[in-house]
Structure formats: structure tokens, C-alpha cells
Amino acid sequence: MNVATFIAMGTVNTITLFEPDTQNILPRVFEYVKSMEQKLTVHHSDSEIMRLNANAGIAPVAVSEEVFALLLRAHAASLEEGSGFNFALGALTRLWRAYQKQGIVPFDTQIAAARALCDPHLVWLDAGSCRAFLTQPGMSLDLGAIAKGYIADGVKRLLAEAGIERATIDLGGNVVLHGQSPKQADGLWRVGIQQPYAAKGEYAAVCRLPAVSVVTSGVYERYAEAGGRQYHHLINPQTGYPFDNGMLGATVIAPDSTEAEIRSTQIFAQGAAGAADSRSDVWRVLIDKEKRMFVSRALLPFFELKDAAYQVIPV
Ligand code: ADP
Ligand code: MG
User: What does each C-alpha distance from 24 to 31, 158, 163 come to in angstroms?
Assistant: First the structure.
């Protein structure tokens, strides 16, 4: 086994190969992840996304093809009816991030003003010229809920093109399983569903899965407390405040990691009421504060509960 761990995108990433890296593919993978990070980061003013944000209300900006393709998918997902996912949420997430650092809850008036700058209809994309334009000053994009999935799909493509038949890709908890597990007689991978608020690697359940992607949106990932309340990093585009729907986490299992990332935010947003929504055919595991676990029926034969305190509700 050949395990490579590296820091990128502010998180720990692990690529596992099950054969010697004779083609030296791992350095190319790091290079790819790093180059995507440089294009997408909001922490350096010279990234493509920051150039777009800096030109909000001023002028369209040309971006690379791979960034444009990501913007198209993020835009389409944001425009779906009732979507809890919104890539134009930068004005709001910036406000809440400042709060997380300084412990001051933004004023309602600040939230309302920022919310007006988060309408995905106000983003203009031109496929012919690969240009994007945020049409109002103060708008900004936040690709934090989709970038890792998109990059993970890119890593899988690189590995497949190099003829690698089996691997796991873990970009900060966004998991892609490639090929069959060499460790299990059934060829399926074992993937844990993280126990909310517990130490990393403590599982509430374990799934046996084929070559799919597994992505979780969880409120326990990043949060801060103020006045006895907990404010986490998933923002409801409808209200401008962190989601308050009783959900702790939504795990989505789908063939494609970009899709899984988008759906994990959308399904988290739908909460218990939307747990049974069959609009999308992706498998899901939702955990709420009442220790209920909503699990897709199709997944149940491959699902093993590890904590008997949960009530499993098939959906
Ligand atoms: P993590 O980064 O912990 O894996 P997610 O993939 O769920 O978490 O992405 C969360 C990030 O996405 C937030 O930190 C924020 O930047 C952004 N975000 C927050 N709320 C939304 C939303 N409703 N739609 C799209 N992006 C969001
Ligand atoms: Mg995510």
C-alpha cells in the first residue's frame, strides 16, 4: 500500500494506492490539486475567483476552462428550485466568517444587505469566451461547498488515465473510491459515517460501497458559540443565518464527487422533511439532533449501525 498525505485547501488530504507508484503519478496529483487550489482560493488576491470577486459590478473576467466548467455546474445547482446550495453566497459567508473569528453575531441589517448580494441569477456566465461576471458591486462567489468534490473528480481522472485501477482519494473528508477494494473478498470498500462531535474516525455507522464518492456536510465540522447559541458554517441562503433545522449531518453517496458535494448541502438544507425526497437518486444518510438516522432503503443492505442509540428510519 502506498499512502500519500499532504496539506492543501486548508485541510489534510490522503491518496492511497494499492500498487507501487511506478509512473510517479503522485507528484502529478499534488501538482494538480495545488494548481486548482491556486485558481480557486479566496485567501490570495491573485486567484481566478478573487479576480472575479474584485471585478464584481465592474467587468467580466476570463477564467480557465476547468474553472469555467466548475462555475457552470455550481451555477446550475444554485438555480435549482428550492436549492439550499448557492455558490454566490460569498457576501454572507464573509460576514459569518468574521463573526467566527471575532465572536460578534452580525446585525440583522448587515445580513439583509449581504443577502441581497447573493442571488445566483445575478451571475453572468459566457461559455463562448469562458468569462464570468458578478453583476453587482459587493457580490462574491464561495465555492467552499463544491471545490473539493470537483478537484477529487479531477484526481480520479488523473489516476484512471495513468492506468491505476484501485485507489482511494480523501480530500479533507470528501472521499472517492476508485475501482474495487483489494482488502475485501467482496471487493466493496468500508466507509464510516462520522459520529457527530466525536473524535475523527469514531463511526456511527459503516457502509460497504462500490466505486462511488462519499461526501458529508456536517454542522459539527466548524462552528463557534455566542450567547449560549451555536453558529455553524452552513448558511441558509433563504434566511442568511446558519441552518437551524435540527440536522447535524448529511452524507451523500453518488458516482460523481461534484454531484455528491452539491447534494450533501442541498439534502442537509432539506432536513428531515426532505429526507425522503426522491427527486435525486443519490443514497443518503442524515443524522439529526434527536439521534434519528434517515437512511436510503437502497443502502440498507450495505449499512451497519455501530451505535445502538440511533433510531434508523428508512427513507
Ligand atoms: P466542509 O468544507 O466542512 O467540507 P462543506 O463542503 O459543506 O463543508 O462546505 C461548507 C462551505 O461552503 C462553508 O464554509 C461556506 O464557505 C460554503 N457554504 C456555506 N453555506 C453554503 C450554502 N448554503 N451553499 C453553498 N456554499 C455554502
Ligand atoms: Mg462539502
Answer: 12, 12, 12
Q: Is 130 exposed, middle or buried (0-12, 13-18, 19+ CB in 10 A)?
A: middle
Angstrom distances, CA of residue 111 to CA of 92, 118, 228, 313 = 7, 11, 20, 36
pLDDT band at 292 (very low <50, low <70, confident <90, very high): very high
Q: What are the residue ranges of helices labelled H in the chain?
A: 25-40, 48-54, 65-79, 90-102, 108-115, 147-161, 257-274
Mutate which of 234, 247, 264 for ligand 1 pocket (most atoms within 8 A of beta carbon): 234
Q: Are 269 and 238 in contact (CB under 8 A)?
A: no
Mean pLDDT of all residues in 124-152: 97
Residue nearest to atom 6 of ligand 1 (CA): 145
145 lines ligand 1 (CB under 6 A): yes
Ligand nearest to the CA of 259: 2
**How close is the Cα of 10 to the center of ligand 2, in Å?**
13
Helix, coil or strand: residue 250: strand
Contact call for residues 243 and 235 (beta carbons, < 8 A): yes
Closest ligand 1 atom to 142 CA: 16
Span 243-287, pLDDT tens digits: 999 999 999 999 999 999 999 999 999 998 776 666 557 999 999
Distance separating alpha carbons of residues 34 and 41, to the nearest angstrom: 10
| In the block, residue with C-alpha cell 439521534 | 291
The answer to whether 40 and 147 are in contact (CB under 8 A) is yes
Q: Which of 93, 90, 143 is nearest to 119 (CA)?
A: 90
> Which among 62, 44, 217, 239 is positioned nearest to 146, based on CA atoms?
217
> How many other C-beta atoms lie within 10 A of the C-beta of residue 161?
10
